[in-house]
Amino acid sequence: PGQPARRESHGSLTASSGPIDGQPSRARRQRDRAAKKRIPSRRTAALRTAPGQPATMLKLLLLLATAWAQMTINRVPIGNAQRRSGAGSLVLEVQGVGNLTVPANEDPATAVERFAARATEAGFRMNNVTMLNMMEWLCERRQCTRPLTGPVMLEVTGAGNLTVLMHEEPAAKVEEFAAMAVANGIPFNVETMRSMLKSLCNSRSCFRDIAGPLTLNVTDVGEFTVLPWEEPADRVEYFSGLVVEAGLGMTRQSAQQMLEWFCQRRVCRRGLTRPLTLSIGEVGNVTVRPFEEPAAIVEVFGAKAQQAGLEVDEEMLQQILNFFCERRSCHRPLNPALEINVPDLGTLKVAPHEDPADAVEQFALVAMQKGLDMTGKQMVEMLTLICEQRVCRRLGVRPPSELNQTSTESLMPPEAEAAVPEAPLPAAETSTTE
Q1: Which of 22, 48, 147, 413 has the most CB atoms within 10 Å of its CB?
Q2: Which pLDDT score is estimated for 387?
Q3: Quick one: pLDDT at residue 375?
Q4: How far apart are the C-alpha atoms of 69 and 58, rounded to whole Å?
Q5: In Å, what is the CA distance from 188 to each residue of 77, 157, 184, 331?
């Protein structure tokens, strides 16, 4: 008694139908196994979809339930995730992206929408499936009072329709919409943008206001403003180009400091353009740096090529400019060819790549050689007239009697005296106005 019964069966040991060391009988074990098959656990039932096919949420929960699990957006791994709890908050750490934090008094839907909006603005790919999976996971651990907000559409009279998707920040979409409208010649202003944002925020969650306008005052140079629909890098490149054309000092470091000031206060979607170089056969190379205006550099290249005896025409220069403008921001076209009729002296022609001061001096020299009298006052008036219509890199002219001498003194238009600096500007600290 109390000892298991044994019987031989093809040389192997098998248990009899009697109890073995106090364990359940074989029949009872079979009944228990059958009951387990018929009645799945609550957790298993919630995760199962079709026989043999685990649910999508099962995969997500298995990942998030581990101490360090991998999370994906659009099936692309974005780092490791760790779940922490404390002070009534749920925190999902997404390595390389940020933290999805749900405070104790916040609905999970708001937290997920905020995380997705910020991740999208930071350049990460988000979609509805990812957000819904996050919601399911959070709602198993926290009471959810509302679902995620679906796409919201806003009709803007005369401009088109704006649609904000579930993972997008409304303010960012308004800024993008305004930028496209302005690019297509449709006037926009900050008041219209804020009115659009208010309408969107009445229908869904919003997490920031319209960015700007922001104004930066650069010491001893001037100030410039970036409007909400403008890309800061574009405006920094524009302002830097104006500074260089005015003959003031500018470096990439100075331009980068200006850009960083804006990017600390609003979203920047790109950095400064890298230096671009175009090789033109035997003529040479044209390089445009990020703080230079492409049209100005192309014009200087054309002038130097012509001085070297090479044939340069407007079509060639336009093709060079097109190369750069397809790869970076351009803020003005090539200077137009100008003609000025001077009574009793003839017609002054200024090509796009010619410096107006050079053209005026050459015109005066030819007039003098023909025995015609052209005064310094006339030269200044001609230069002033030209500089009102196009960019001038040199604002002074020398009278014909001095052109063959070593003296560099020049006659200056009155308004140009104050515009010429005594020394190049160093990379200055900046003062600000927001």
Answers
A1: 413
A2: 84
A3: 79
A4: 13
A5: 40, 12, 11, 19
3-class secondary structure, 49: strand
Q: What dihedral do alpha carbons 221, 223, 224, 227 form, nearest 10°?
A: 160
**Burial class, 367, CB count within 10 angstroms (exposed 0-12 / middle 13-18 / buried 19+):** buried
First CA to last CA across the chain, in angstroms? Answer: 94
- Side chain identity, residue 72: T
Strand ranges in 12-169 using DSSP code E only, listed in sequence order: 12-15, 48-50, 53-54, 69-73, 76-86, 89-94, 98-102, 152-156, 160-164
Low-confidence ranges of the chain (pLDDT < 70): 1-87, 94-96, 401, 403-434
Q: What is the pTM of this model?
A: 0.62
Give CA–CA dist 360/85, Å, rounded. 77
What are the residues whose beta carbons fall under 8 Å from the beta carbon of 373, sequence distance 6 or more? Answer: 367
Residue 290 has what pLDDT?
92
CB atoms under 10 Å from CB of 384, counted, come to 17
Distance (Å) of CA 236 to CA 19, 311, 393, 432? 87, 34, 20, 14
Helix (H) or strand (E) run with residue 177 in it: helix 170-183
Q: Can you list the positions of beta strands (E) in 281-399?
A: 284-288, 338-342, 346-350
